[in-house]
Design goal:
This protein is of the alpha/beta class. The protein folds into two domains: about 120 residues, Rossmann fold (3-Layer(aba) Sandwich); about 230 residues, Dihydrodipicolinate Reductase, domain 2. Helices cover about 25% and strands about 25% of the residues. The chain contains nine helices and 20 strands. The strands form four sheets. Strands 7, 10, 11, 12, 13, 14, 15, 16, 17 and 20 form a ten-stranded mixed β-sheet that branches. The protein has a six-stranded parallel β-sheet with strand order 3-2-1-4-5-6, sandwiched between helices. The longest helix has 14 residues. The radius of gyration is 21 Å and the shape is globular. The relative contact order is 0.15. One of its GO terms (molecular function) is 4-carboxy-2-hydroxymuconate semialdehyde hemiacetal dehydrogenase activity. It is an enzyme of class 1 (oxidoreductase). Pfam families: GFO_IDH_MocA, GFO_IDH_MocA_C3. This is 4-carboxy-2-hydroxymuconate-6-semialdehyde dehydrogenase. Its EC number is 1.1.1.312.
């Protein structure tokens, strides 16, 4: 005889912007009886239309007060980067488990403070790297373990994306490295294309802080912002492998980001937003496959019921946070000269900036594991090596 399971009371902190995607997921889970949206923490209350299907959850600008009044067992945090640590620790103090958007913290010190706090509280924190919920991750690991592409020589990643100028005006913290004295570190590698970095690290098996030997950064900006929008990072792991990630928000023709595992006898390319894998190897034709994905909130709920391990526990993002720290510690991104980019306006009047030749350059970085400077970009200087880790 099956036992009736009460819906898990849940609070969503940050319900607009990317938070709307979380709201959609919560709505599906509420309809199936898995969760109950008990509260929403937002600066401006959500309208009845936005809350369609949820009844009347409590709304407040004070997460601590919401946790006390709702008794929420789970909190989804999709708020500005520099608020993550304080809000997650508030949830921990009230015994609530957390799905925390990436990056989990704006600095390694804040990350460690968060890790210490959740360990003391005994709560679970899942970090919102959705790509790490893809079943393709294990499939690629199996391919590598079986020697399908030979010995792994290195891992590259490319993110040829675009964002219009309004993207950097959407919130006071957008495009900032710091705000009112607080670290934000809202760069292309640490926020919009953070999945490329985290996925490459996961496929290499280098997710712990001690798995990283050295980090080099090349940070640039075409937009009138403080943070980087066109960057490359080279990560040397303690296993002696190189991971090279190139990303831009100024692509000529934006395309799906991908991670490529280079082997001595072939390569595996993973388009992580599509859960698509392409194997290319000596003596065989190309082999393409598509894979399923486990939702990270569902996985967190399963974990709380003792039915699954967390897919992206906080400790598994420590190596990624070393990259965030390297970007944070690097000199401010260099402004690209006006001749390196152009401004494009679409029919609706939306303007964006395009760096000449950046699509091919980003792809070349992923192929060669070399940075912009080594590949001859005229605007790229020597990379900066991070302090010893």
């Amino acid at each position: 005889m099956s036992l009736h399971r009460e819906p898990v009371p849940l609070v969503l902190a940050g319900a607009r912007g990317h938070g709307r995607k979380h709201l959609d997921t919560i709505r599906r889970l509420a309809l199936s009886g898995r969760v109950r949206l008990a509260g929403i923490c937002e600066l401006t209350p959500l309208s009845g239309a936005e809350l369609d299907g949820f009844g009347a959850p409590e709304q407040s600008t004070d997460l601590t007060a919401l946790l006390r009044s709702t008794g929420a067992r789970v909190v989804v945090i999709s708020t500005p980067i520099h608020t993550h640590t304080a809000l997650a620790l508030s949830a921990a103090e009230h015994g609530a488990h957390v799905l925390l958007e990436k990056p989990p913290a704006p600095s390694y010190a804040e990350f460690q403070r968060l890790a210490d706090g959740i360990e003391a509280a005994g709560i679970a924190v899942q970090v919102g790297f959705q790509s790490l919920g893809s079943h393709a991750i294990d499939a690629i690991r199996d391919l590598v373990a079986d020697g399908v592409i030979g010995d792994v020589l290195g891992i590259g990643a490319a993110g040829p994306w675009t964002r219009d100028e309004a993207y950097f005006r959407r919130a006071p913290w957008a495009g900032h490295r710091r705000l009112n004295g607080d670290d934000v570190v809202d760069g292309v590698l640490t926020n919009p294309l953070a999945h490329a970095v985290a996925t490459a690290l996961a496929l290499d098996g280098s997710t712990g802080a001690g798995d990283i030997e050295a980090i080099e950064t090349e940070l640039f900006r075409a937009h009138d912002i403080e943070a980087d929008d066109t960057s490359y990072v080279a990560i040397t792991t303690t296993a002696g492998r190189r991971i090279g990630v190139a990303a831009t928000l100024c692509a000529e023709h934006p395309d799906e980001p991908y991670v490529v595992v280079h082997g001595s006898r072939g390569r595996v390319t993973f388009w992580y937003k599509q859960d698509r894998v392409l194997v290319q190897r000596s003596g065989h034709g190309p082999e393409e496959s598509f894979h399923g994905r486990t939702d990270l909130l569902v996985n967190l709920l399963d974990h709380l019921e003792g039915r699954a391990a967390l897919l992206v526990p906080l400790r598994a993002t420590a190596a990624f946070m070393r990259v965030v720290e390297a970007v944070r510690d690097a000199p401010d991104p260099a402004r690209l000269p006006p001749k390196a980019w152009m401004r494009v306006t679409d029919e609706e009047g939306s303007a964006r900036r395009v760096v000449h030749g950046i699509d091919a350059l980003v792809a070349a970085c992923a192929d060669t594991l070399d940075g912009f400077g080594a590949l001859g970009a005229p605007w790229a200087g020597a990379p900066k090596e991070a302090d010893a880790l």
